[in-house]
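User: I'll paste a sequence; please echo it back and then give the predicted structure.

Assistant: Echoing your sequence first, then the prediction.
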Amino acid sequence: MTVTLSVRAVAKIADLAAEAWDACANPSGLTADQSGGERFDPFVAHAFLKALEDSRSVSGRSGWTPAHVVVEDAAGRLVACAPTYLKTHSQGEYVFDHSWAEAYRRAGGRYYPKVQVAVPFTPVTGRRLLVAADAPAGAREALVAGWRALRQAAGASSIHVTFPERLDHAWLAGAGFLSRVGEQFHFVNQGYRDFDDFLAALASRKRKAIKRERREALGDDIAVELLTGNAINSGHWDAFFAFYMDTGSRKWGRPYLTRDFFDRIGASLAERTLLVMAKQAGRYVAGALNFIGDEALYGRNWGALIERPFLHFEICYYQAIEFAISRGLARVEAGAQGEHKLARGYRPVPTYSAHEFADPGFHRAVAAYLASERPAVGEAIAEYADRLPFRQAD
């Protein structure tokens, strides 16, 4: 029997029922294998995306205009959706296409707007084709048709799906999208009992280096607090926002998230939030924001008001490893880039994106570029793997 599906773009996620969106984004009964690595993904949850919009962290003014593509059946039930935006720049994506934009401009074209299927400011692999467990056949195809219709209606140059999990990525490649591969560094929990058990797996020199870094990071004057759920209050968010703004202003020049965003996350996703805060002489001086999935801990933002050797590693990496081990989480994803994470026990893993251009000639040109880029990325990942700090098997 043929099921009639309708597709539209929605300008505000608040116009969609949270239960309906989340039934597609985080369907019950999903296994890690079926989802590509995470049963519950906090970043595609309605609450997270709504906090971005309601706080004005995401809006037309920010260059991210929401245009979420949704698929409904004949009864009006949401059966598939995708976090979708019209972008007027290439900031906050972590998959860099500035050279493509410049080449498009030199060829006489207008690269922006473009259709971006992503979680804003979040380089975390996850589901992008959000399909309900009982969705009828054709739901994924309808989402892609919706992106293409949005591209045409907006006069956009292209569609970019960034950080899809491997199953979505493979499906998109089969649908004609260009495949791009990148890399990140993740801690993989090998069933460690505690942090000392993890250290025991390292080569002696690396183990001693990490112990020294942890001692120097905290000294005898810094205490660390791990806060989740109701233990996080507005004072903690005030302190963390000061760290975030200081680091963002110095490193990027334009912090994306507003103060209101953190209050909204604290209200709606408190049990999925971990703040690691460092206190010196009675005041907070540094902190890291993490989100807790069913399978992983996700490090997102960090900041500090003091300069202290190795404090960043302690607050962002070592405390995250300890927390993940204590919770039995399979991995820690500590954000984009960071070759220095190798020496701290984080392993190289591939990340993915998918791209489609309206102009056939430019699509072919990018395809040729990616064909030469992929082997180089694969070689880099293999080289990183050879530099891991773990003890060699006897």
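The first helix runs from residue 18 to 25. The longest strand covers residues 178-188.
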